[in-house]
Amino acid sequence: MRSYYATVVLAGITCAGLGQSPPASNNIVPSEPQVQQNAEGRGFSFHSQNIRQDRLRPSALEFMMRDLERNTDASAQERGGANAVGEETMARFESQYGFADGDLAFRAMELPTVLPFPIDANPAGPPGALQENSEREESSRTKFKASSYVPLDSWIYSAFDRLAAMGYVPTGSATVRPWTRLECARLLAEAHENADWDDEVSPPLLAALDLELAHETGVIDGARNIEAQVDSVYGRSTTIAGAPLRDSFHFGQTLADDFGRPYGHGENGITGASVRAEAGALAVYLRGEYQYAAAMPAYSQAAQQAIASFGPNGDALPFGWNMRNGVTSRIRMLEAYAAVNFANWQICFGQQGLWWGPDRTTSLILSNNAEAMPMLRFARVRPMKMPGILNAAGPVYFDFFFAREGGVHYVGLGPSFTLYGSAAKPLNPPPYIWGATFSIKPSPNFEFGFGHTVIFAGYGRPLNFKTFLQTFSALGNGQAVDPGKRAEEFNLTYHLPGLRRTVEAYTEMFAWDDPIEGKFFARYAMDPGLYMPRLPGIKKMDLRMEGVYTNLPKLVGLAYFYSNAHYPQGYTNYGQIMGGWIGRQGVGGQVSSSYWLTGHTKATASYRRMTVDKSFLQGGDLSDISGTMTWIRGSGVEFSAMGQFERWKFPLLQSGVQSNFTASFEMRVHPNARVGSK
Fold first, then answer.
1. Do residues 64 and 93 make contact, with C-beta atoms less than 8 angstroms apart?
2. Other CB atoms closer than 10 Å to residue 339's CB: what's the count?
3. Are 666 and 271 a contacting pair, CB within 8 Å?
4. How many CB atoms are closer than 10 A to CB 565?
5. Which domains does the chain have, with CATH numbers?
């Protein structure tokens, strides 16, 4: 009976697919080159022979057959016979797994008419699939093959977050990002081997990732790593009615974690494109865009004077150093870098965004809240296995960068930190920053990480090996020569006992200045969180709850976090905090829940709130509620719509409660334009 159902469905899909083929003279089926040209899809190319069956292997086909077994009964056959069953099932597949109407039938031209594995095969795949996935996990063929990094705003991460929270990605890191596309393909193979094919959650995620990472899977299988393609072309329109905020260094911000893009009261927009190329051990990635932003509402004279005179830590600055004046209209490179891979160590030079930490709504040490910095980066792109007894630490990730800050106009010089600089001209040379992080995973259910960053050198202090070594001084800031502005972070992620595939708990502990003092709760800012990848009774819905605070009791001074006397512009890049949107002395959090329609189509509702202590510029509070819908058509067109209502009250800025509404719509096209090896 199972074989009968499979035969009916495959026959129906194949015939429907041929029926939707482009018209040909005398109704002749298109020739093989035409079929290949029309079947060419996003994320893969038929001229890569090693991708042979990735589009049809169990991730995309086996779970549909099993879904058919679970949901097709005799009554359906009685209602319309075999054809009705096939048509009904195909329509449901198109809706459930994210294909455009009729697109599944079109893609059926790519499938063979005879399955290469029996319907009663192991849920993990056809004979040999477990061994194939295991070999992909090892990915020994990619040791000297470079790969571009997946952008931090890609849907790929949220899909892997969900799989990892269910325990299907035991060697993936939750704290060190971005990942390379080849690493994502390796983790995908790991998820295939560990996934439970009887649930309703993992199959659509795996199918979507299979389509996206088919080329990289082929490279792992032995295909040549030669490819160049237009990754995406996109445009976004954002309208803000009411007075927004864009100053988390003093108050708050309406839009966060958006690569430091400008926005203002009124119409805002971006138009951009990204391209990538790989050739053996080399990789290149470019992402640039045109940005237009309306002007921000001006602060009152009283607010400007209060901000300029505030400086308990020596960070009193002329007003406006982190503010935009008037309308912004510019072309900006969001990310641009070249990389070379040597034995799974990838050296990267260029502009790149980083995210360190397990939280997803903010990160206290490094996030994409500010513009990406130009940097030299040295990262382990695949987890290390330590020798001997050290192997008990499990998979180890490591990342190091050396970067230059931008938009820095002021510096504090001498023992009294005398302010020097000009609003009209940035410092030359600017301050530099280096950072390192690692994470270990002694158990698939537990990950521990450590991160460290230092702002040092710049105007008044030369950049050389001596000043670099000074940043390691154990004496901290209690010495004549300032070692730089240092920050350290500990993080952990844990799958709760008895709820290993249901609840994931995590936190980040962020320390400023002298962190190793044992005073974890007295000196460490934190952002604990919980993530449930599927809710009981509503498996298509997840829930994430995260809190964050930098308003610790008994601090050495007001607005302690992210500020510094030597570097009075603090932990910022072009005026935006490089860490969390919570600011220097706030308490807040965010709750969000997504309903996953398919592997990459979902609706998300979110609520965010923050409160700033009254001792810091009279304090204030902010809250917003938002809804986002993201969906991807099978033709490679992605749409996203967002609406957000916000209320805020900062007495220094306005006497009463203020509100704004943000509406945003984005369209992103993933072209098939690609050049690769045959």
1. yes
2. 24
3. no
4. 17
5. 227-676 (2.40.160.130)
